[in-house]
Design goal:
With 459 residues, this protein is mainly α. Helices cover 48% and strands 5% of the residues. The protein starts with a strand and ends in a 7-residue tail after the last helix.
């Protein structure tokens, strides 16, 4: 009997346990459903990247004698139609853990034989729990337990041999879309990027990853977001790098990168166990913060026109490319929440509206961490000084010059705070949107009022 391999956030052939399970049960139909709910919610560049990855996956399948079947519609409806048209018996899909994915799959399971296969996480939600059976809400003990539960060895699955594809299944054309700049689509590109990172950057990752002016990160986040690379592949690479590292510093750098992968699974399990974080703070005590609702200030933040060069550089990189350096994400988020006192949920939505790698769990977790409202969050009184952040992580101002060309002629000593030297730059704000010291006093008072309940008492 034939089966449907329902592809979702696993756009690959390598290390594909769902494909292995489906092919073991008989010939397969490789199906991707263009879900209007998800397409409407996707950032334009994220949608473009998805469609380009689908075209690449289709080409890979054709080289194996198959094809990608694409249909548009509500998943339960489409799947019933394809089952009827093909005579397929079961649907195999990689389990997804977002609130929407869980509702969608529950709906499909009511009308179809849906078999969910683990593959999105190396250790899915529920696999790493405290001794009392409750989920971890602090990263460090979670990461320790996560490491202790690692299988040995961690090795990726090969592409199945002799895949039988069901022939003659009609497909819609994959919609035309552009290719996001900076990120070529497909499994071959992702694999090449991973190899380059392992050969040239992983052993310096610990000291270079926060430098916005350097190419120190892996650059793999869009491919991880869509499962073009599996978590098992990445973890196996990190462990292999640790074992091969020459010296303690190199080994620690590989361990640091592994830690970033664990953060991803930490936030996936937080969203799974505490789905309310998608719409509210994890720490209910901060639900009553009296936020600044000035739309004009939010707009200047979005446009990269705050007058703080490192913040503006990050926001313009996001606007122009659909991606932002991780340190810049932290700085820009802190500035919105702690300097402007604007609700973190506004920023969370803006990032999801623009990021190629926008992921519900990681994006929400990062914003709540910065805002001090989430699990294992930075204390609300920890507030980045954006000028000092710029000087530390973009010491020569190269990142700022790249994304804020108005400031390209400034020397390094002035570029992160031109107003301090009385410099007037044509076309750039002469002063920051807010005074940092005054702003953080306002923020601390607002958080303390919410924490002790006075904000809800009108005090």
């Amino acid at each position: 009997m034939s089966n449907i391999w329902w592809i979702r956030r696993d756009l690959r052939l390598g290390d594909q346990p769902t494909l292995h399970a489906a092919t073991a049960a008989g010939p397969v139909v490789a199906l991707y459903v263009l879900d209007p709910v998800l397409l409407r919610a996707a950032a334009p560049r994220r949608r473009e990247f998805l469609l380009a990855c689908l075209r690449s996956l289709d080409a890979d399948l054709r080289r194996l004698g198959g094809q990608l079947t694409v249909r548009t519609g509500r998943p339960a409806t489409v799947l019933r139609e394809v089952l009827a048209q093909t005579g397929a018996q079961s649907i195999f899909a990689e389990e997804d853990f977002t609130p929407y994915a869980r509702r969608r799959d529950a709906s499909v399971a009511q009308v179809c034989d849906l078999r969910l296969i683990q593959g999105q996480c190396l250790q899915p939600p529920g696999a790493v729990l405290k001794t009392d059976g409750t989920p971890y809400v602090v990263y460090t003990p979670y990461a320790r337990a996560w490491r202790q539960r690692l299988p040995s060895p961690v090795s990726a699955l090969p592409v199945p041999k002799n895949i039988q594809f069901l022939e003659g299944v009609a497909s819609e054309p994959i919609p035309a879309a552009g290719q996001p700049s900076g990120f070529l689509a497909g499994e071959a590109e992702a694999g090449g990027r991973l190899r380059q990172f392992l050969q040239h950057r992983i052993f310096d990752y610990g000291k270079r990853r926060d430098r916005m002016d350097l190419d120190g990160t892996s650059g793999l986040s869009p491919y991880v977001r869509f499962g073009v690379l599996s978590m098992r592949t990445l973890v196996a690479a990190a462990l292999r790098a640790q074992a091969e590292a020459a010296g303690t510093a190199a080994q620690n750098s590989a361990e640091t990168w592994l830690g970033e992968l664990i953060w991803r699974e930490f936030y996936i399990q937080i969203l799974y166990h505490f789905p309310h974080v998608a719409r509210a703070p994890f720490r209910a005590g901060f639900a009553g913060i009296q936020w600044n609702t000035q739309e004009s200030e939010f707009q200047r933040w979005k446009n990269g026109e705050t007058g703080v060069p490192i913040v503006d550089a990050g926001m313009r990189q996001l606007r122009e490319t659909g991606w932002m350096h991780n340190r810049a994400r932290m700085i820009t988020a802190s500035y919105l929440v702690k300097d402007l006192l604007i609700n973190w949920q506004w920023g969370e939505r803006w990032f999801m509206d623009n990021l190629i790698d926008g992921d519900p769990g990681a994006n929400n977790g990062g914003w709540q961490w910065t805002a001090g409202t989430g699990t294992d969050a930075a204390p609300y009184f920890r507030i980045f000084n954006p000028v000092l952040q710029g000087k530390r992580f973009d010491p020569d101002g190269s990142y700022v010059r790249q994304w804020v060309p108005e400031l390209a002629g400034l020397p390094a000593k002035s570029i992160h705070a031109p107003w301090e030297g009385g410099l007037v730059v044509p076309g750039y704000p002469q002063q920051p949107l807010v005074d940092h010291k005054s702003a953080i006093r306002r923020t601390r008072l607002a958080y303390e009022a919410a924490k002790d309940g006075s904000a809800t008492k009108g005090l």
